[in-house]
């Protein structure tokens, strides 16, 4: 009995240590094939529908050549009981509808007499306010004025700013001179750069 247990144990260890390097390489063992695209499949459909049996209030018809060009039409009855129809073509250049019986929807609404009068009143009031605010009286009188203490503080600030800027410039010149002196007295490092990849 112990022989069978040892044999089973050794076989299971052997399976665990087996060569599995071929598992992810199916492409080496398979032939590569390419599938050519099928020929274009044209289609066509149409339907009529209504909100209750025996009543048709919309219609659609469409056909495609299978190569990307689609022609179609649809019609419906709008809430004003007008039949609206759209003929369309869709191709690689976009969607191109032709609207029929949409003239009343596409027309821009006209202002009534009351709206026209209110617009004129609004424009007159706008012009009056704009002209009044274009050059308000006493604008320069309301600007803040600089007092003597503010002028002194501003001058002191500019003096300190210029002093600090001059100090920073002197430090920059000193560091540049130190760098040039260091480079002049240093031995250049000729170690070639090694690129590790």
From TrEMBL:
One of its GO terms (cellular component) is chitin-based extracellular matrix. Residues 1-18 form the signal peptide. InterPro entries: Cuticle_Struct_Prot (IPR050468), Insect_cuticle (IPR000618). Keywords: Cuticle, Signal. GO terms for molecular function: structural constituent of chitin-based larval cuticle. This is Uncharacterized protein. It comes from Cotesia congregata. The keyword Signal applies. The keyword Acetylation does not apply.
């Amino acid at each position: 009995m112990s022989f069978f247990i040892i044999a089973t144990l050794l076989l299971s260890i052997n399976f665990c240590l087996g060569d599995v390097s071929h598992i992810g390489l199916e492409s080496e063992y398979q032939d590569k094939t390419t599938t050519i695209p099928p020929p274009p499949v044209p289609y066509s459909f149409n339907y009529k529908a209504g909100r209750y049996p025996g009543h048709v209030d919309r219609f659609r018809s469409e056909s495609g050549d299978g190569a990307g060009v689609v022609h179609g039409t649809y019609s419906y009855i709008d809430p004003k009981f007008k039949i609206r129809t759209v003929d369309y073509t869709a191709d690689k250049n976009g969607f191109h509808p032709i609207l029929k019986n949409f003239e009343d929807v596409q027309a821009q609404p006209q202002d009534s007499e009351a709206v026209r009068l209110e617009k004129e009143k609004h424009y007159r009031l706008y012009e009056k306010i704009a002209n009044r605010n274009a050059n308000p009286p006493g604008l320069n009188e309301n600007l803040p004025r600089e007092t003597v203490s503010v002028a002194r503080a501003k001058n002191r600030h500019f003096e300190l700013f210029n002093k600090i800027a001059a100090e920073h410039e002197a430090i920059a010149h000193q560091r540049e001179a130190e760098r040039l002196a260091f480079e002049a007295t240093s031995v250049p490092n000729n170690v070639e750069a090694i690129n590790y990849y």
